[in-house]
Request: fold
Amino acid sequence: MSLARIPFDRVIWPTTFFLGGTFLVSLIGIPLYLWHFEMEWVFQIGLFVAFFTATGLSITLGYHRLFAHKAFQARMPVRLFTLCFGAAAFENSAIDWVSDHRRHHKHTDHDDDPYDASKGLFYSHIGWVLFKLKPMPPMDNVADLQKDPLVMWQARHWYLIGAFFAFILPTIVGYMWGGWATALGAFLIAGVFKVVAVQHCTFCINSLCHALGDQPYSKKCSARDSWIMALFTFGEGYHNYHHEFQHDYRNGIKPWHFDPTKWSIWILSKVGMTKNLRRVAQDKIEAAKEEARRQESQGLEAFHHEPELISSAGETHHPR
Reply:
């Protein structure tokens, strides 16, 4: 896309500056920090992993499977934790996130899909948050969340909540561990870089999980299953299954599927923090797989039995 064709009048400048700024601070600030200070590797990497996991799971477990799909029920401490650390991902408030995601499932691969994969990888990955190409749709699909006082509290204050849990809290922990030098490293690595990493892991679900992998459960849309993508998305890479059975608390249904979100929900259920975990019956799963195989075989059969046409030159060819 040439500069002349970029719709600068449609750019969402605060979002663009934030995403670009956090990326540049990570790209430039962390090497400068490593140059000028002796980093405590074990502490800084451990702190990054802790905040990355808390924030990432708050999106996949909280925003996604709990609030968007009602795949299970959770007690107040779990809901509060995921709302606070979910805000730290700076992917919008839970209620706005859920509204977008429910429209994504309702209009997958069509124009009303907020991150329509048919518009290309750039658009579905990040373009849709950088450009406002259409008027904002009405919030008519989150009436259930509008009745939730905790969700509405987060919606009113998510910028402040996000700033505290994303940047201030890791900086405080770093200062308490080793003073100002360690605090600066914690701000850059467990703070700024953590936000960049979590955001792009989430964006990969919208983009690469609709481009890479297999479709064993449904051919209805572009969503795909990929164990590789599951490694980077807390188990959300089994996306073809999820689009076919969106209310299942699992994305990876086999015991060996890498799905930390599923494991976390299950463990929380054993200590009384979650309940009513929704699972699709195995016979329905098998029926979906059989239907997907049937559609695939019919498609291949139609391809191999295309009628041959004879051109005026006497050459046989297949129509395309």
